[in-house]
């Protein structure tokens, strides 16, 4: 079973899935984590990079497909390594993978391995990671589901499997009770006893 984790502590979540809190005009399609700008983003599980691109809304984003369940995990508003900025506008990039150092489409990632840095690219209102999960590729168009709740469920399942089973002390064998000859040999003892009394 694959391991799963939140990219950052849940205390850094600033906006949950489905939130309509102003200034939003439609339900939030992902979960936002806001650690410090340029913080390395660890992969939440194992998988393979399927897309690295720029969007006017999502800014620099990368997506990978998970080994377990074949889900597509999207990371948006990323920092641009090529220009060393959290607010890159996507211009002057012949190859989208230049927004991240040492990460290209087709590369494998393992849980905890960096998949980008927290940025403020695209239509973002401050440095944060916008992360999504969906059953189909391309986070711009696919229907997402609540990744925070999903990761919580996976972690709870992992913790249940990690629980140490109770140590059951073996029962001590009771010593066999001492038998009198009459109890041991039954009616034969009675016959023998009568004969020699």
Structural class: alpha+beta
Tally of individual helices:
3
Q: What percentage of the residues does DSSP assign to strands (E)?
A: 15-25%
What sequence of helices (H) and strands (E) makes up the elements? EEEEEEEEEEHHH
Mean pLDDT: 87
Task: Round the Cα radius of gyration to an integer and report it.
Answer: 31 Å
- Say how many strands there are: 10
Quaternary = single chain
Q: Separation of termini?
A: 77 Å
| Overall body shape | elongated
Task: Give the biggest sheet.
Answer: 8 strands, antiparallel
Helical content, roughly? 10-25%
Low-confidence stretches: none
Give an overview of the whole structure.
It contains three helices and ten strands, in the order E-E-E-E-E-E-E-E-E-E-H-H-H. With 197 residues, it is of the alpha+beta class. The strands form two sheets. Strands 1, 2, 4, 5, 6, 7, 9 and 10 form an eight-stranded antiparallel sheet that branches. A two-stranded antiparallel ribbon has the order 3-8. Strand 5 and strand 6 (72-78) form a beta hairpin.
């Amino acid at each position: 079973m694959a391991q799963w984790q939140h990219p950052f502590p849940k205390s850094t979540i600033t906006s949950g899935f489905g939130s309509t809190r102003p200034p939003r005009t439609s339900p939030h399609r992902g979960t936002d984590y806001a650690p410090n700008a340029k913080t390395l983003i660890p992969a939440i599980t194992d998988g393979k990079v399927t897309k690295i691109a720029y969007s006017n809304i999502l800014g620099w984003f990368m997506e990978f497909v998970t080994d377990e369940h074949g889900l597509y995990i999207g990371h948006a508003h990323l920092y641009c390594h090529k220009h060393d900025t959290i607010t890159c506008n996507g211009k002057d990039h012949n190859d989208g993978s230049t927004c991240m150092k040492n990460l290209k489409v087709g590369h494998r990632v393992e849980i905890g391995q960096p998949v980008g840095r927290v940025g403020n690219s695209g239509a973002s209102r401050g440095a944060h990671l916008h992360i999504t999960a969906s059953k189909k590729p391309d986070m711009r168009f696919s229907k997402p589901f609540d990744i925070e709740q999903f990761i919580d469920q996976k972690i709870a399942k992992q913790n249940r499997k990690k629980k140490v089973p109770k140590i059951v002390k073996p029962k001590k064998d009771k010593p066999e009770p001492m038998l009198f000859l009459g109890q041991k040999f039954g009616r034969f003892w009675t016959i023998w006893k009568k004969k020699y009394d």
